[in-house]
Design goal:
By secondary structure, the protein is α+β, with helices and mostly antiparallel strands. It is about 45% helix and about 20% strand. The chain contains seven helices and eight strands. The protein has helices spanning about 5-25, 30-35, 40-50, 65-80, 80-100, 105-115, 230-264; strands at about 120-125, 140-145, 145-160, 165-170, 180-185, 195-200, 210-220, 225. It has a four-stranded mixed beta sheet. A hairpin with a 2-residue loop joins β2 (about 140-145) and β3. α1 (about 5-25) packs parallel to α4 (about 65-80), α5 (about 80-100) runs antiparallel to α6 (about 105-115) and α5 (about 80-100) packs antiparallel against α7 (about 230-264).
């Protein structure tokens, strides 16, 4: 079995490494101190072609595979773990989920802006009383004509304070537990959506984290991702990929720490 990277993967790896050394390394301490990633960085990542690394070119992506996305995350984390965390939430949790589960209209509407950096993505699953036990979420959705009405709270949501598009999980049929969860595509300007506060953290400063409130938030029924009451399929397929994707971040952090130790 050949474990060598192909030429495209090596090129992407090198391009992201050079980008990080040029754009981020000189201000990495400032990002951590001020707890904000620099203005305009998302557009630059879009121009680099990495925000939709494994999205088809028809939707504005670069058409690479999952491993290439992992390599991007690794090289970002090697210099700035906080930016890598926000990148993973955007490119994997939001964009990849939408790319795999969205219908044609949804992909055409959201993916080009997410791949170009005009839009920042996030995913909202964790709640004050439900994290690893995702089936216990309490945010609920009720059908009202051609909209769903969402009510509830999400906590520790990466990119929440700066996002434009968020994938949200809510109970649409509470009696069915895991079979009663639906995934929704929510825009920050939908009535009833708000980020109540930005959370202070000890680590990964520079990756904005927030609490999200849904108060009679009206989401068009056409913004259901996948099928009604089938959000657990979207959720688990996304989490399976996320575990591999985030491993690249851990590897990049280890590489960066090793290089600093050698220099010291």
């Amino acid at each position: 079995m050949d474990f060598e990277l192909n030429d495209d993967q090596k090129l992407v790896q090198m391009s992201v490494r050079q980008f990080m050394l040029r754009e981020i390394e000189p201000i990495a301490e400032k990002i951590d101190r001020e707890d904000e990633f620099p203005e305009g960085i998302w557009k630059k990542l879009g121009e680099l072609g990495v925000l939709g690394a494994n999205v088809d070119v028809a939707y504005g992506g670069s058409g690479f595979d999952l491993l290439t996305g992992v390599l991007v995350n690794e090289q970002i984390a090697r210099t700035c773990p906080a930016l890598a965390l926000s990148y993973a939430a955007h490119a994997n949790l939001c964009v990849d989920n939408l790319n795999r589960n969205g219908n044609e209209d949804q992909k055409m509407q959201y993916l080009p802006g997410l791949c170009s950096g005009d839009l920042i993505g996030a995913l909202a699953l964790t709640e004050p009383n439900a994290g690893s036990d995702a089936v216990s979420i309490r945010t609920h959705a009720v059908l009202d004509g051609d909209h769903f009405i969402l009510n509830g709270t999400k906590m520790f949501i990466t990119n929440a304070p700066v996002c434009d598009v968020m994938l949200v999980y809510a109970k649409s049929n509470p009696k069915s537990r895991a079979r009663g969860i639906t995934a929704f595509i929510v825009e920050k300007d939908f009535p009833g959506f708000s980020v109540s506060r930005k959370l202070e953290k000890l680590g990964n400063r520079g990756s904005p984290t927030g609490e999200v409130i849904f108060e009679d938030c009206r989401v068009p029924a056409e913004n259901v991702l996948g099928a009604v009451d089938n959000g657990i399929h979207v959720m688990m397929s996304g989490l399976d990929v996320e575990r591999a994707f985030v491993a690249g971040e851990a590897l990049g952090i280890a590489e960066g720490a090793f290089e600093l130790a050698i220099t010291y």
